């Protein structure tokens, strides 16, 4: 492996001699779908002891990335970076199709190494930093689209944070006046990308393997007939999550064949809906999974909710579904089928499931996953009522329940407001910073 890495570095320096002139490239420090990232230091400082050297992260983009994409990533770094925990760029070098971004380096560990031992104060600082970074990005009308621990680097020793990787970022642009509606924004579609591994997708039409049937089943309903939906036959969650069973059991279209055990010829013939789905499996919000085209910065807020709940539950990855329909089934388990169906209807989609789920109490779930004693939760005794922990109107002072593993109720309340299925009701980064968990208490 070391030899292969050294060969890659030699090859890169050969293709980009300017890089070799300015920097000493030491080793590979990261690899994503679209880049390799190396640790570098300035050559003129070569004699300095390593503690005094200036270190840089040198991101080499794979040559198949669309030039418009690269330009957009660079613009994001230039326009927004260098402040509020958002990565900046020091230098960009190019020769033919070899392009590198030179950025400040931040030492960091894998999220999985510390996800289980962050306490409430550390989590508060971490989430504050993430919200401050997102508030900045969103104030530029940009959706990051790939918020996840691998792109929010955390130097635990020095309490430094950096939001990196604008490779999937998208700019919001206003809808034309005559079609303007809530929310008043539309995505600029990203240029198509030739490199897709099914986990992280760039192009709006990229789909993970086996997603063809999903696209058919998620046919757009021009006028959703939610109220006339026939109650589908019940099925277990396991059945919903089975890839073979999913196309039958979860669908989002308004045809009479919905939930009837197959897709009719008319639906087969309909073009699949197109909406941006760039992002990473397990971090996609309902509006992306439901192929809603008018996505907003709320996409990033959902992903930050997934990061938060990962820490609260000490589980990473938190969601494990490998395709969009299974992911919807996972969300139905957590949020409740009705809440997800209401959101689908509000977004012009019809979600049909073969079994109803009431939704889970986040605090109880996290306690269970951590093996901690379950917190008292009066609301779960109410038949078919959504748990308070997932209620948007949750007020921390209303519940004097004990904390879970030292995390206060307010932390769970924030998670519930970030994992709000309806993107229009989800908290913004600025609002999250005013939330009791982040605005008050602790350091
Ligand atoms: P990709 O688009 O390929 O995912 P990223 O920009 O996310 O590329 O970088 C991939 C990995 O490289 C990151 O997850 C991180 O581990 C490492 N990395 C990126 N930027 C930096 C940086 N400024 N400092 C330290 N490590 C970095
Ligand atoms: Mg990345």
UniProtKB/TrEMBL annotation:
It is an enzyme of class 2 (transferase). Residues 184-211 are annotated as: Disordered. InterPro entries: Kinase-like_dom_sf, Prot_kinase_dom, Protein_kinase_ATP_BS, Ser/Thr_kinase_AS. Residues 23-438 form the Protein kinase domain. ATP binds at residue 59. The keyword Kinase applies. Keywords: ATP-binding, Kinase, Nucleotide-binding, Serine/threonine-protein kinase, Transferase. Its EC number is 2.7.11.1. Pfam families: Pkinase (PF00069). PANTHER family: CDC7 KINASE, ISOFORM A-RELATED, OVARIAN-SPECIFIC SERINE/THREONINE-PROTEIN KINASE LOK-RELATED. Belongs to the protein kinase superfamily. This is non-specific serine/threonine protein kinase. It comes from Galleria mellonella.
